[in-house]
Design brief:
Helix content: 25-40%
Mean pLDDT: 79
Largest sheet: 8 strands, mixed
Number of helices: 15
Number of domains: 3
Shape: globular
Distance between the termini: 65 Å
Strand content: 5-15%
Structural class: alpha/beta
Length: about 575
Protein backbone atom coordinates (compact mmCIF):
# COMPACT_ATOMS: atom_id res chain seq x y z
CA UNK A 1 0.00 0.00 0.00
CA UNK A 2 1.18 3.51 -0.86
CA UNK A 3 1.45 6.09 1.90
CA UNK A 4 1.08 9.86 1.80
CA UNK A 5 4.33 11.86 1.61
CA UNK A 6 3.06 14.82 3.62
CA UNK A 7 4.68 15.55 6.96
CA UNK A 8 2.74 13.97 9.83
CA UNK A 9 0.20 12.24 7.52
CA UNK A 10 -0.19 8.46 7.84
CA UNK A 11 -3.02 7.96 5.31
CA UNK A 12 -2.75 4.89 3.08
CA UNK A 13 -4.00 4.20 -0.45
CA UNK A 14 -6.53 1.64 0.79
CA UNK A 15 -8.83 4.25 2.32
CA UNK A 16 -7.77 7.47 0.59
CA UNK A 17 -7.29 8.53 -3.02
CA UNK A 18 -3.61 9.16 -3.81
CA UNK A 19 -2.26 11.58 -6.43
CA UNK A 20 1.10 11.61 -8.17
CA UNK A 21 3.43 14.59 -8.08
CA UNK A 22 3.30 16.61 -11.36
CA UNK A 23 5.78 15.79 -14.09
CA UNK A 24 6.21 19.53 -14.85
CA UNK A 25 9.34 20.63 -13.01
CA UNK A 26 7.99 23.97 -11.79
CA UNK A 27 4.67 22.58 -10.49
CA UNK A 28 6.53 19.63 -8.97
CA UNK A 29 8.74 21.97 -6.96
CA UNK A 30 5.70 23.98 -5.83
CA UNK A 31 4.20 20.76 -4.45
CA UNK A 32 7.50 19.87 -2.80
CA UNK A 33 7.66 23.31 -1.18
CA UNK A 34 4.15 22.85 0.16
CA UNK A 35 5.11 19.54 1.76
CA UNK A 36 7.87 21.43 3.59
CA UNK A 37 10.21 18.54 4.37
CA UNK A 38 13.84 19.52 4.70
CA UNK A 39 16.16 18.34 1.90
CA UNK A 40 13.41 16.15 0.43
CA UNK A 41 12.70 15.57 -3.25
CA UNK A 42 9.70 13.73 -4.65
CA UNK A 43 10.33 10.54 -6.62
CA UNK A 44 8.11 8.74 -9.10
CA UNK A 45 6.42 6.73 -6.36
CA UNK A 46 5.72 9.76 -4.11
CA UNK A 47 2.04 10.51 -3.53
CA UNK A 48 -0.21 13.00 -1.72
CA UNK A 49 -3.60 11.96 -0.46
CA UNK A 50 -6.90 13.70 -1.15
CA UNK A 51 -7.00 15.27 2.32
CA UNK A 52 -4.40 17.87 1.32
CA UNK A 53 -6.46 19.39 -1.52
CA UNK A 54 -9.24 21.91 -1.18
CA UNK A 55 -12.52 21.09 -2.94
CA UNK A 56 -11.82 23.91 -5.41
CA UNK A 57 -8.76 21.99 -6.67
CA UNK A 58 -10.90 19.18 -8.13
CA UNK A 59 -12.70 19.10 -11.46
CA UNK A 60 -16.46 19.57 -11.23
CA UNK A 61 -19.31 18.21 -13.29
CA UNK A 62 -17.49 15.16 -14.66
CA UNK A 63 -19.75 12.65 -16.46
CA UNK A 64 -17.89 9.69 -14.95
CA UNK A 65 -18.06 11.15 -11.38
CA UNK A 66 -14.35 10.50 -10.91
CA UNK A 67 -12.43 12.63 -8.44
CA UNK A 68 -9.69 14.16 -10.57
CA UNK A 69 -7.48 17.16 -9.85
CA UNK A 70 -7.38 20.22 -12.05
CA UNK A 71 -4.28 20.62 -14.19
CA UNK A 72 -3.29 23.62 -12.06
CA UNK A 73 -4.13 22.06 -8.68
CA UNK A 74 -1.91 22.91 -5.69
CA UNK A 75 -2.08 21.20 -2.27
CA UNK A 76 -2.93 23.71 0.43
CA UNK A 77 -4.12 21.74 3.49
CA UNK A 78 -1.24 20.71 5.73
CA UNK A 79 -0.42 20.50 9.41
CA UNK A 80 3.20 21.53 9.95
CA UNK A 81 3.05 21.34 13.73
CA UNK A 82 5.18 18.63 15.24
CA UNK A 83 3.29 16.13 17.41
CA UNK A 84 3.38 17.25 21.00
CA UNK A 85 4.75 14.53 23.25
CA UNK A 86 3.04 14.89 26.59
CA UNK A 87 5.29 14.34 29.55
CA UNK A 88 4.25 12.04 32.33
CA UNK A 89 3.20 13.80 35.48
CA UNK A 90 5.60 13.59 38.45
CA UNK A 91 3.27 11.09 40.14
CA UNK A 92 3.50 8.58 37.29
CA UNK A 93 7.23 8.57 36.74
CA UNK A 94 10.10 7.77 39.01
CA UNK A 95 12.72 10.35 39.93
CA UNK A 96 15.85 10.54 37.87
CA UNK A 97 19.28 9.85 39.34
CA UNK A 98 19.84 13.56 39.95
CA UNK A 99 16.41 13.93 41.53
CA UNK A 100 17.03 10.96 43.82
CA UNK A 101 20.23 12.56 45.06
CA UNK A 102 18.66 15.96 45.80
CA UNK A 103 15.02 15.09 46.32
CA UNK A 104 14.74 16.45 49.88
CA UNK A 105 15.96 19.89 48.77
CA UNK A 106 13.45 20.40 45.93
CA UNK A 107 11.05 23.07 47.02
CA UNK A 108 9.92 24.11 43.52
CA UNK A 109 8.95 22.18 40.42
CA UNK A 110 11.19 23.71 37.77
CA UNK A 111 12.24 20.22 36.68
CA UNK A 112 8.74 19.66 35.26
CA UNK A 113 8.41 22.95 33.40
CA UNK A 114 7.37 22.38 29.78
CA UNK A 115 9.74 23.64 27.14
CA UNK A 116 8.59 25.83 24.30
CA UNK A 117 7.78 23.80 21.16
CA UNK A 118 8.81 25.16 17.76
CA UNK A 119 5.96 24.39 15.39
CA UNK A 120 7.81 25.48 12.25
CA UNK A 121 10.75 27.48 10.97
CA UNK A 122 8.43 30.36 10.03
CA UNK A 123 7.14 30.77 13.59
CA UNK A 124 10.68 30.58 14.94
CA UNK A 125 11.75 33.30 12.50
CA UNK A 126 8.84 35.47 13.57
CA UNK A 127 9.80 35.10 17.24
CA UNK A 128 13.38 36.09 16.46
CA UNK A 129 12.19 39.23 14.70
CA UNK A 130 9.87 40.15 17.54
CA UNK A 131 12.36 39.51 20.32
CA UNK A 132 15.79 40.53 19.12
CA UNK A 133 16.99 44.11 18.98
CA UNK A 134 20.17 45.59 17.62
CA UNK A 135 22.91 47.04 19.80
CA UNK A 136 21.45 50.53 19.43
CA UNK A 137 17.99 49.41 20.50
CA UNK A 138 16.56 49.70 17.00
CA UNK A 139 14.17 47.06 15.68
CA UNK A 140 15.64 44.12 13.80
CA UNK A 141 13.33 44.80 10.85
CA UNK A 142 13.50 48.08 8.98
CA UNK A 143 10.34 48.98 7.05
CA UNK A 144 10.76 51.49 4.23
CA UNK A 145 7.87 53.15 2.38
CA UNK A 146 8.66 54.58 -1.06
CA UNK A 147 5.92 56.65 -2.70
CA UNK A 148 6.52 57.68 -6.31
CA UNK A 149 10.21 56.73 -6.40
CA UNK A 150 9.98 56.23 -10.17
CA UNK A 151 13.37 55.03 -11.35
CA UNK A 152 14.11 52.74 -8.39
CA UNK A 153 17.71 53.85 -7.85
CA UNK A 154 17.15 54.25 -4.09
CA UNK A 155 15.76 50.73 -3.86
CA UNK A 156 18.60 49.13 -5.83
CA UNK A 157 21.33 51.05 -4.02
CA UNK A 158 19.97 50.12 -0.61
CA UNK A 159 19.65 46.43 -1.48
CA UNK A 160 23.07 46.12 -3.11
CA UNK A 161 24.90 48.05 -0.38
CA UNK A 162 22.94 46.66 2.58
CA UNK A 163 25.99 44.82 3.96
CA UNK A 164 27.77 48.09 4.71
CA UNK A 165 25.47 48.88 7.64
CA UNK A 166 24.24 46.99 10.70
CA UNK A 167 22.54 44.00 9.15
CA UNK A 168 18.85 43.52 9.65
CA UNK A 169 15.78 42.44 7.78
CA UNK A 170 14.65 45.03 5.21
CA UNK A 171 11.06 45.38 4.04
CA UNK A 172 10.34 47.79 1.17
CA UNK A 173 6.81 48.95 0.36
CA UNK A 174 6.53 50.42 -3.14
CA UNK A 175 3.68 52.69 -4.26
CA UNK A 176 3.52 54.31 -7.72
CA UNK A 177 0.91 56.41 -9.46
CA UNK A 178 0.77 54.18 -12.56
CA UNK A 179 1.28 50.52 -13.28
CA UNK A 180 3.82 51.03 -16.08
CA UNK A 181 6.32 52.34 -13.52
CA UNK A 182 5.51 49.43 -11.23
CA UNK A 183 6.18 47.03 -14.11
CA UNK A 184 9.59 48.62 -14.71
CA UNK A 185 10.39 48.19 -11.01
CA UNK A 186 9.74 44.47 -11.35
CA UNK A 187 11.78 44.27 -14.56
CA UNK A 188 14.84 45.91 -13.04
CA UNK A 189 14.59 43.79 -9.89
CA UNK A 190 14.59 40.61 -11.97
CA UNK A 191 17.53 41.92 -14.00
CA UNK A 192 19.46 42.89 -10.86
CA UNK A 193 19.01 39.44 -9.34
CA UNK A 194 20.08 37.52 -12.45
CA UNK A 195 22.65 34.88 -11.52
CA UNK A 196 26.21 35.07 -12.95
CA UNK A 197 25.57 31.60 -14.37
CA UNK A 198 23.05 33.19 -16.72
CA UNK A 199 24.49 36.68 -17.22
CA UNK A 200 27.84 38.34 -16.53
CA UNK A 201 28.19 41.63 -14.70
CA UNK A 202 29.18 43.57 -17.81
CA UNK A 203 26.24 42.28 -19.85
CA UNK A 204 23.86 42.94 -16.97
CA UNK A 205 25.07 46.52 -16.65
CA UNK A 206 24.75 47.19 -20.37
CA UNK A 207 21.21 45.78 -20.61
CA UNK A 208 20.16 47.72 -17.51
CA UNK A 209 21.40 51.02 -18.90
CA UNK A 210 19.75 50.42 -22.29
CA UNK A 211 16.36 49.60 -20.81
CA UNK A 212 16.70 52.35 -18.24
CA UNK A 213 17.57 55.36 -20.40
CA UNK A 214 17.31 54.60 -24.15
CA UNK A 215 14.33 55.02 -26.43
CA UNK A 216 15.98 52.64 -28.92
CA UNK A 217 17.73 49.43 -27.93
CA UNK A 218 19.55 46.52 -29.58
CA UNK A 219 17.81 43.41 -30.85
CA UNK A 220 19.64 41.28 -28.26
CA UNK A 221 18.18 43.46 -25.50
CA UNK A 222 14.73 43.03 -27.02
CA UNK A 223 15.18 39.25 -26.86
CA UNK A 224 16.06 39.45 -23.18
CA UNK A 225 13.06 41.74 -22.58
CA UNK A 226 10.75 39.25 -24.29
CA UNK A 227 12.03 36.33 -22.18
CA UNK A 228 11.72 38.35 -18.98
CA UNK A 229 8.20 39.46 -19.96
CA UNK A 230 7.24 35.77 -20.20
CA UNK A 231 8.61 35.25 -16.71
CA UNK A 232 6.75 38.28 -15.33
CA UNK A 233 3.48 37.18 -16.93
CA UNK A 234 3.77 33.86 -15.15
CA UNK A 235 4.75 35.68 -11.94
CA UNK A 236 1.68 37.97 -11.76
CA UNK A 237 -0.73 35.19 -12.74
CA UNK A 238 0.69 32.47 -10.48
CA UNK A 239 1.56 33.81 -6.99
CA UNK A 240 2.75 30.41 -5.74
CA UNK A 241 5.20 30.14 -8.61
CA UNK A 242 6.49 33.67 -7.94
CA UNK A 243 6.96 32.82 -4.26
CA UNK A 244 9.01 29.80 -5.25
CA UNK A 245 11.13 31.59 -7.85
CA UNK A 246 11.59 35.00 -6.18
CA UNK A 247 10.44 34.89 -2.54
CA UNK A 248 11.75 38.43 -2.02
CA UNK A 249 8.96 39.90 -4.21
CA UNK A 250 5.45 40.13 -2.80
CA UNK A 251 2.49 41.27 -4.95
CA UNK A 252 -0.34 39.94 -2.78
CA UNK A 253 -1.47 43.49 -1.96
CA UNK A 254 -2.23 44.27 -5.62
CA UNK A 255 -5.83 44.03 -6.75
CA UNK A 256 -6.84 41.43 -9.33
CA UNK A 257 -7.62 44.22 -11.77
CA UNK A 258 -4.13 45.64 -11.36
CA UNK A 259 -2.56 42.21 -11.89
CA UNK A 260 -4.55 41.84 -15.10
CA UNK A 261 -3.31 45.22 -16.26
CA UNK A 262 0.27 44.26 -15.42
CA UNK A 263 -0.16 41.10 -17.48
CA UNK A 264 -1.34 43.24 -20.40
CA UNK A 265 1.70 45.51 -20.04
CA UNK A 266 4.11 42.56 -20.09
CA UNK A 267 2.36 41.12 -23.15
CA UNK A 268 2.79 44.47 -24.87
CA UNK A 269 6.53 44.34 -24.15
CA UNK A 270 6.69 41.03 -26.03
CA UNK A 271 5.18 42.46 -29.21
CA UNK A 272 7.99 42.73 -31.78
CA UNK A 273 5.92 44.78 -34.24
CA UNK A 274 7.61 48.18 -34.54
CA UNK A 275 4.41 49.85 -35.68
CA UNK A 276 2.65 49.45 -32.34
CA UNK A 277 5.06 51.83 -30.59
CA UNK A 278 7.03 54.15 -32.94
CA UNK A 279 8.87 55.86 -30.12
CA UNK A 280 11.15 57.83 -32.46
CA UNK A 281 8.08 59.62 -33.84
CA UNK A 282 6.67 60.13 -30.36
CA UNK A 283 9.97 61.61 -29.21
CA UNK A 284 10.22 64.01 -32.13
CA UNK A 285 6.61 65.07 -31.66
CA UNK A 286 7.22 65.83 -27.99
CA UNK A 287 10.29 67.88 -28.89
CA UNK A 288 8.41 69.93 -31.48
CA UNK A 289 5.59 70.73 -29.05
CA UNK A 290 8.02 71.57 -26.24
CA UNK A 291 10.42 73.76 -28.22
CA UNK A 292 7.89 75.36 -30.54
CA UNK A 293 9.60 77.97 -32.72
CA UNK A 294 12.96 77.06 -31.16
CA UNK A 295 12.92 73.62 -32.79
CA UNK A 296 15.07 74.68 -35.75
CA UNK A 297 17.70 76.03 -33.36
CA UNK A 298 17.28 73.18 -30.88
CA UNK A 299 21.03 72.51 -30.50
CA UNK A 300 21.42 75.92 -28.90
CA UNK A 301 18.42 75.25 -26.65
CA UNK A 302 20.01 71.97 -25.53
CA UNK A 303 23.26 73.75 -24.72
CA UNK A 304 21.45 76.43 -22.73
CA UNK A 305 19.58 73.85 -20.62
CA UNK A 306 22.81 71.99 -19.95
CA UNK A 307 25.11 74.89 -19.09
CA UNK A 308 22.72 77.29 -17.41
CA UNK A 309 20.48 74.80 -15.63
CA UNK A 310 21.92 71.32 -15.14
CA UNK A 311 25.52 72.39 -14.53
CA UNK A 312 24.34 75.20 -12.29
CA UNK A 313 22.45 72.63 -10.19
CA UNK A 314 25.44 70.37 -9.63
CA UNK A 315 25.29 68.00 -12.61
CA UNK A 316 28.60 69.12 -14.10
CA UNK A 317 29.66 65.59 -15.03
CA UNK A 318 27.10 65.53 -17.86
CA UNK A 319 28.92 66.27 -21.12
CA UNK A 320 27.61 68.37 -23.97
CA UNK A 321 27.89 65.65 -26.62
CA UNK A 322 26.08 62.94 -24.67
CA UNK A 323 23.39 65.33 -23.49
CA UNK A 324 22.74 66.60 -27.02
CA UNK A 325 22.58 63.02 -28.32
CA UNK A 326 19.97 62.15 -25.73
CA UNK A 327 17.89 65.30 -26.21
CA UNK A 328 17.80 64.79 -29.97
CA UNK A 329 17.24 61.02 -30.25
CA UNK A 330 16.51 59.77 -26.74
CA UNK A 331 19.61 57.55 -26.67
CA UNK A 332 21.63 58.08 -23.47
CA UNK A 333 23.78 54.96 -23.21
CA UNK A 334 25.69 53.16 -25.95
CA UNK A 335 27.95 50.81 -23.96
CA UNK A 336 29.23 49.05 -27.07
CA UNK A 337 29.00 49.25 -30.81
CA UNK A 338 25.65 48.03 -32.07
CA UNK A 339 22.55 48.92 -34.00
CA UNK A 340 20.02 50.70 -31.80
CA UNK A 341 16.82 50.45 -33.81
CA UNK A 342 14.29 48.55 -31.69
CA UNK A 343 11.78 50.53 -29.62
CA UNK A 344 12.13 50.33 -25.86
CA UNK A 345 8.54 49.42 -25.05
CA UNK A 346 9.12 49.64 -21.30
CA UNK A 347 8.97 53.44 -21.70
CA UNK A 348 5.41 53.28 -23.05
CA UNK A 349 2.61 54.54 -20.84
CA UNK A 350 -1.01 55.52 -21.23
CA UNK A 351 -2.95 58.64 -20.29
CA UNK A 352 -6.52 59.82 -20.77
CA UNK A 353 -6.93 62.55 -23.39
CA UNK A 354 -10.03 64.41 -24.49
CA UNK A 355 -11.18 63.52 -28.00
CA UNK A 356 -14.53 64.70 -29.37
CA UNK A 357 -15.71 65.44 -25.85
CA UNK A 358 -14.76 62.01 -24.49
CA UNK A 359 -11.82 60.80 -22.44
CA UNK A 360 -9.92 58.11 -24.30
CA UNK A 361 -6.80 56.21 -23.28
CA UNK A 362 -3.80 56.96 -25.46
CA UNK A 363 -0.53 55.02 -25.38
CA UNK A 364 2.64 56.95 -26.09
CA UNK A 365 5.80 58.31 -24.51
CA UNK A 366 5.02 60.84 -21.78
CA UNK A 367 8.29 60.74 -19.88
CA UNK A 368 11.22 63.11 -19.43
CA UNK A 369 12.66 64.96 -22.46
CA UNK A 370 14.62 67.66 -20.61
CA UNK A 371 16.52 66.50 -17.50
CA UNK A 372 18.01 63.22 -18.84
CA UNK A 373 18.49 59.81 -17.16
CA UNK A 374 22.10 60.73 -16.32
CA UNK A 375 21.03 62.36 -13.04
CA UNK A 376 20.05 58.96 -11.61
CA UNK A 377 23.42 57.19 -11.70
CA UNK A 378 25.82 59.53 -13.52
CA UNK A 379 26.41 62.69 -11.48
CA UNK A 380 27.79 61.25 -8.22
CA UNK A 381 30.29 58.48 -7.50
CA UNK A 382 32.36 57.13 -4.61
CA UNK A 383 35.38 56.72 -6.92
CA UNK A 384 37.20 60.05 -6.77
CA UNK A 385 39.49 59.10 -9.68
CA UNK A 386 36.51 59.29 -12.01
CA UNK A 387 35.95 62.96 -11.14
CA UNK A 388 39.32 64.15 -12.46
CA UNK A 389 39.43 67.08 -14.87
CA UNK A 390 41.87 68.02 -17.58
CA UNK A 391 42.04 71.63 -18.77
CA UNK A 392 38.82 72.30 -16.90
CA UNK A 393 36.94 69.45 -18.61
CA UNK A 394 35.94 66.20 -16.90
CA UNK A 395 37.87 63.23 -18.27
CA UNK A 396 34.98 60.82 -17.68
CA UNK A 397 31.44 61.47 -18.83
CA UNK A 398 28.13 60.78 -17.14
CA UNK A 399 27.91 57.59 -19.23
CA UNK A 400 31.18 56.35 -17.72
CA UNK A 401 30.04 57.25 -14.21
CA UNK A 402 26.69 55.51 -14.71
CA UNK A 403 28.36 52.37 -16.02
CA UNK A 404 30.81 52.29 -13.11
CA UNK A 405 28.16 52.92 -10.44
CA UNK A 406 25.86 50.19 -11.70
CA UNK A 407 28.71 47.73 -12.16
CA UNK A 408 29.85 48.47 -8.60
CA UNK A 409 26.33 47.88 -7.24
CA UNK A 410 25.93 44.55 -9.03
CA UNK A 411 29.40 43.45 -7.94
CA UNK A 412 28.71 44.32 -4.31
CA UNK A 413 25.42 42.42 -4.38
CA UNK A 414 27.18 39.38 -5.80
CA UNK A 415 30.29 39.32 -3.61
CA UNK A 416 29.32 41.35 -0.55
CA UNK A 417 32.48 43.43 -1.05
CA UNK A 418 33.08 46.93 -2.31
CA UNK A 419 34.03 47.20 -5.97
CA UNK A 420 37.59 48.28 -6.82
CA UNK A 421 37.77 50.36 -10.00
CA UNK A 422 41.52 49.91 -10.42
CA UNK A 423 41.37 46.13 -10.75
CA UNK A 424 38.26 45.97 -12.97
CA UNK A 425 38.40 43.42 -15.76
CA UNK A 426 35.31 44.07 -17.91
CA UNK A 427 36.61 42.10 -20.89
CA UNK A 428 36.54 38.82 -19.00
CA UNK A 429 33.15 39.48 -17.46
CA UNK A 430 34.54 39.14 -13.92
CA UNK A 431 35.57 41.74 -11.38
CA UNK A 432 38.64 41.38 -9.18
CA UNK A 433 38.94 43.33 -5.95
CA UNK A 434 41.83 43.70 -3.60
CA UNK A 435 39.92 42.07 -0.75
CA UNK A 436 38.56 39.08 -2.67
CA UNK A 437 39.68 36.01 -0.79
CA UNK A 438 37.40 33.21 -1.89
CA UNK A 439 34.71 32.05 -4.25
CA UNK A 440 31.75 34.27 -4.95
CA UNK A 441 28.83 33.81 -2.61
CA UNK A 442 25.41 34.01 -4.21
CA UNK A 443 23.06 33.07 -1.42
CA UNK A 444 24.31 34.43 1.90
CA UNK A 445 21.60 35.63 4.23
CA UNK A 446 21.70 38.94 6.05
CA UNK A 447 22.73 38.57 9.69
CA UNK A 448 21.20 40.56 12.51
CA UNK A 449 23.61 42.79 14.38
CA UNK A 450 23.11 40.65 17.48
CA UNK A 451 25.45 38.13 15.87
CA UNK A 452 22.86 35.43 15.22
CA UNK A 453 22.15 34.12 11.73
CA UNK A 454 18.73 34.69 10.30
CA UNK A 455 16.77 31.40 10.32
CA UNK A 456 16.59 29.74 6.92
CA UNK A 457 13.23 28.39 5.82
CA UNK A 458 13.04 24.87 4.45
CA UNK A 459 12.44 25.69 0.80
CA UNK A 460 13.71 23.74 -2.18
CA UNK A 461 16.82 24.76 -4.05
CA UNK A 462 15.81 27.09 -6.87
CA UNK A 463 19.19 27.55 -8.52
CA UNK A 464 18.02 26.12 -11.84
CA UNK A 465 14.28 26.12 -12.33
CA UNK A 466 12.50 25.86 -15.64
CA UNK A 467 10.13 28.66 -16.48
CA UNK A 468 7.36 27.70 -18.85
CA UNK A 469 6.41 30.30 -21.44
CA UNK A 470 3.83 30.67 -24.14
CA UNK A 471 6.28 29.42 -26.75
CA UNK A 472 7.47 25.85 -27.21
CA UNK A 473 10.96 26.66 -25.97
CA UNK A 474 11.79 26.76 -22.27
CA UNK A 475 13.59 29.72 -20.68
CA UNK A 476 15.83 29.01 -17.71
CA UNK A 477 15.93 31.50 -14.86
CA UNK A 478 18.45 31.55 -12.06
CA UNK A 479 18.45 34.26 -9.40
CA UNK A 480 20.66 35.61 -6.67
CA UNK A 481 19.38 35.86 -3.13
CA UNK A 482 19.24 39.46 -1.84
CA UNK A 483 19.36 38.17 1.73
CA UNK A 484 16.68 39.10 4.26
CA UNK A 485 15.00 41.60 1.92
CA UNK A 486 11.34 41.69 0.94
CA UNK A 487 9.80 44.06 -1.62
CA UNK A 488 6.05 44.59 -1.32
CA UNK A 489 4.27 46.16 -4.30
CA UNK A 490 1.14 47.95 -3.11
CA UNK A 491 -1.94 49.07 -5.02
CA UNK A 492 -2.14 52.59 -6.40
CA UNK A 493 -4.53 54.03 -3.80
CA UNK A 494 -3.00 52.36 -0.76
CA UNK A 495 -1.42 55.54 0.69
CA UNK A 496 -4.84 57.02 1.45
CA UNK A 497 -5.93 53.72 3.07
CA UNK A 498 -2.91 53.03 5.29
CA UNK A 499 -4.39 54.52 8.44
CA UNK A 500 -7.46 52.29 8.12
CA UNK A 501 -5.46 49.05 8.33
CA UNK A 502 -4.01 47.98 11.65
CA UNK A 503 -1.09 46.07 10.08
CA UNK A 504 0.44 49.38 8.96
CA UNK A 505 0.10 51.14 12.32
CA UNK A 506 3.52 52.36 13.59
CA UNK A 507 5.21 50.27 10.88
CA UNK A 508 7.43 52.45 8.72
CA UNK A 509 10.87 53.54 9.94
CA UNK A 510 11.80 55.40 6.73
CA UNK A 511 9.47 57.17 4.30
CA UNK A 512 10.24 58.63 0.88
CA UNK A 513 7.87 60.86 -1.11
CA UNK A 514 8.66 62.18 -4.57
CA UNK A 515 7.86 65.78 -5.46
CA UNK A 516 4.84 64.62 -7.49
CA UNK A 517 3.31 62.70 -4.56
CA UNK A 518 3.62 65.19 -1.68
CA UNK A 519 -0.14 65.76 -1.72
CA UNK A 520 -0.40 62.39 0.05
CA UNK A 521 1.41 63.83 3.10
CA UNK A 522 -1.70 64.13 5.24
CA UNK A 523 -1.90 63.88 9.06
CA UNK A 524 -2.98 60.26 8.62
CA UNK A 525 0.55 59.40 7.50
CA UNK A 526 1.77 59.96 11.05
CA UNK A 527 -0.25 56.97 12.25
CA UNK A 528 1.79 54.53 10.19
CA UNK A 529 5.18 55.91 11.25
CA UNK A 530 7.31 54.17 13.84
CA UNK A 531 9.01 55.99 16.67
CA UNK A 532 11.63 58.46 15.38
CA UNK A 533 10.70 57.70 11.78
CA UNK A 534 12.63 59.62 9.12
CA UNK A 535 10.88 61.24 6.16
CA UNK A 536 12.59 62.24 2.90
CA UNK A 537 10.84 64.48 0.39
CA UNK A 538 12.23 65.04 -3.09
CA UNK A 539 12.72 68.69 -4.04
CA UNK A 540 12.31 70.37 -7.43
CA UNK A 541 16.06 70.75 -7.90
CA UNK A 542 16.21 68.84 -11.20
CA UNK A 543 12.89 70.05 -12.61
CA UNK A 544 14.52 72.44 -15.05
CA UNK A 545 11.34 74.21 -16.15
CA UNK A 546 10.29 75.13 -12.61
CA UNK A 547 11.11 78.73 -11.75
CA UNK A 548 12.86 79.72 -8.52
CA UNK A 549 9.78 81.40 -7.04
CA UNK A 550 7.69 78.31 -7.80
CA UNK A 551 10.29 76.10 -6.12
CA UNK A 552 10.18 78.37 -3.07
CA UNK A 553 6.40 78.02 -2.86
CA UNK A 554 6.77 74.25 -3.21
CA UNK A 555 9.28 74.10 -0.33
CA UNK A 556 7.01 76.16 1.91
CA UNK A 557 4.04 73.97 1.05
CA UNK A 558 6.03 70.84 1.90
CA UNK A 559 6.99 72.27 5.28
CA UNK A 560 3.33 73.08 5.98
CA UNK A 561 2.23 69.57 5.07
CA UNK A 562 4.98 67.87 7.09
CA UNK A 563 4.32 70.06 10.14
CA UNK A 564 0.62 69.21 10.01
CA UNK A 565 1.55 65.53 9.67
CA UNK A 566 3.77 65.61 12.77
CA UNK A 567 7.30 66.03 11.35
CA UNK A 568 9.95 68.70 11.78
CA UNK A 569 12.82 69.65 9.50
CA UNK A 570 16.32 68.26 10.08
CA UNK A 571 19.30 70.48 9.26
CA UNK A 572 19.53 74.04 8.06
CA UNK A 573 20.78 73.45 4.51
CA UNK A 574 19.19 75.53 1.77
CA UNK A 575 16.41 73.58 0.06
CA UNK A 576 17.45 74.75 -3.44
CA UNK A 577 20.87 73.11 -3.05
CA UNK A 578 19.58 69.72 -1.91
CA UNK A 579 17.72 67.08 -3.87
CA UNK A 580 16.07 65.75 -0.69
CA UNK A 581 14.51 67.43 2.34
CA UNK A 582 14.84 65.43 5.57
CA UNK A 583 12.29 65.38 8.40
CA UNK A 584 11.88 63.40 11.60
CA UNK A 585 8.67 62.36 13.31
CA UNK A 586 7.66 64.20 16.49
CA UNK A 587 6.37 62.13 19.38
Amino acid sequence: MTGCSAFGCSNQSGKYKMYRFPSDKVRRQIWEAKVRRKSWKAIDSSRLCQEHFDVNQFERGRADDKKRLKCSAVPTIFSYRKPVKLRNSPKKRGPSRTERLHLPNLSDHTYSTHERIDSSNESQSDRVLEAELTDNGRPSELSILMVGAGDGRHLLSTICQSQRWPKRKLAFYIVENNLEVLARHMLFLVLTLESPKRMGLQEKTEIFLELFGNTLIRSSTVSYLSDTANFLIRAVTDPEWLRLMLPCINITALKFKEKDQLEAIFKFWKNRDRRVFPIDKFWDGRLRRYLGVRYDSRIGAYDWDLMMKLHDRGAKLIGSREYTRWRDKGIAFEPREGIFEEANKTLASGILLMHNGERRPVRGYWGDIVTSPFVSFGIETEEENLKKTRNGVHVNTARDISYHNLLALFHELLTGKKYSHVQAQPDSGSIATSNDSGPLSTGDSIVLSTGKDFPQQETPNTDSIVSSSSSSTEAYFDFLSPGAVTIHFLNLDSVSQFHLKSKYTDLFNVLYFSNSMVHHLTPNVRRVCAKKAVLFVETTKFLLDVRAETSLLFAKRVEELTTAAGFHRVGAAAWEKESLMEFIAIR
